[in-house]
Specification:
Elements (H helix, E strand, L loop, with lengths): L9 H13 L4 H7 L3 H4 L1 E4 L2 E4 L7 H13 L2 H10 L25 E2 L2 E2 H21 L12 E5 L6 H9 L8 E5 L4 H8 L7 E6 L6 H15 L7 H4 E5 L2 H7 L6 E3 L16 H7 L1 H20 L6 H14 L5 E6 L7 H13 L17 E4 L10 H6 L6 E6 L7 H20 L3 H10 L6 H8 L7 E6 L4 H22 L10 H13 L1
Parallel strand pairs: 5-6, 5-7, 7-8, 8-9, 10-11, 10-12, 12-13
Antiparallel strand pairs: 1-2, 2-13, 3-4
Helix pairs in contact: 1-4, 4-14, 7-12, 7-15, 12-13, 13-20, 14-20, 15-20, 18-19
Bound molecules: 6-O-phosphono-beta-D-fructofuranose.
Amino acid sequence: MKNINPTKTDAWKQLSTHYEEVKNIHLKSLFKNDIDRKNKFTINFNQFEFDFSKNLITKETVTYLLKLADEVDLKSAINAYFSGEKINKTENRAVLHTALRNQLDNEIIVDGKNIMTEIKEALNKMSSFTDSVISGKWKGYSGRAITDIVNIGIGGSDLGPDMVVASLKYYKNHLNIHFVSNIDGDHVQEVLKNLNPETTLFIIVSKTFTTQETLTNATTIKKWFLQSASENDIVKHFVAVSTNLTMTNEFGIAAENIFPMWDWVGGRFSLWSTVGLSISLAVGFKNFNDLLIGAFEMDEHFKNTPFDKNTPILASLIGVWYTNFFNAETEVILPYTQYLTKFAPYLQQAIMESNGKSVDRNGNNINYQTGNIIWGSTGTNAQHAFMQLLHQGTKLIPADFIGFKQSLYGNKEHHKKLMANFFAQTQALAEGKTKQEVHLDLKIQGNIDDINQLLPFKVFSGNKPSTSILIEKLTPQTLGSLIAFYEHKIFVQGVIWNIFSYDQFGVELGKELAKKIYKKN
Ligand code: F6P
């Protein structure tokens, strides 16, 4: 991958000049001056409609941003990413979560080996294990079928699977899925208190198998299990997902119960691998496979679509525009479905652990902003919590609104109201409400005496940007595409900012100190 300081490109200079020219243009006038604006900035992809029209952009903005993408040679970076070049240079690893969902017949070579063979084997193992647990063929030590699954993991070994299991709750079978992540002993106790060791299966998920939280929780759980069962019963109740076979063996996991992981999958991008075993158990392997297919479809769109119609690329470039020119510091994620409650916390790790970097690919400190702060919650709840700050606060916070045309249970009345709120929020943010409009409203309400006093507080400046992602229906496939969309957005921004997105050395110092402090006390 090239090593280009984005601020030294021609496009960056043009964007700086362009920013001065357009920074005060109101979204309302952009819409007024171009009645076709919505269509011009909307891209349809499968069951998705990406509407970028409510962003603070013009045709020229997009032209300069696309030029920036060309100048940093995004095209060859994408090729390097998909073909398995070791773009995670600081860890000397390829970044191939895309291979995990590859539906093509091509080979993908890492260190002289076609990894597609291992991936297929792992998927087959997941599939037969899933079937055997769901059907009740897999028995616990007392001969009873499994009723509960506990995923023991943290970070990427927890957030992704937990988010997908919650998001696909509608598609779930009879198995109860639990997640233990925090080293806070109360977390594990709260989960264990309602479980029966005879009918519970534990999945220890740790790429490295050295993570303090996961090993501590797994050890506590093993002790709890051995209070009612014997060492010989472990094989029926403990499986592991890891790259570290020595450590899994030391922990006492039977070789046949180990699901392989690979160093070319980053933890925060691993839900597509065997790390997603809890997903497969929760919704069945067919649905898990549909999730992979959806992600693959987004991969193909990203890989093959010209940049000006390429949704992850446009979203990334617009994000760079806000971060580096408007000085926006945060981005809010607002899914209008209760199923996606865990989507923002999941994206926090994916995005912030990837692009929270201040050293460029030459090893130099950088003097421009990188990774955004990600936060969010579901609508309409967010409207009654923090949306006040977006509408009338002092900060510019670009928002992603994610909505679905159909609800899953088909309650039309609720869904109509939900989506009315979705559209109302994006409109209110973009248009605002002028003094004149507020004045008229107050007059109609008969508040003549208070008008001048109240007026300033009731004005909405508007011009607050948002992107609307409207999806036909929440299915494993559309969820897969949505997650992959954000994964590629991360990649593109990392390329533009000239940083290494796939290491996470920033989490190490705290871990080291915690170990020292623990030993001292
Ligand atoms: O501490 C951060 C981190 O390394 C994440 O990147 C990773 O997802 C998580 O810890 C868990 O790591 P592991 O799967 O190796 O236990």
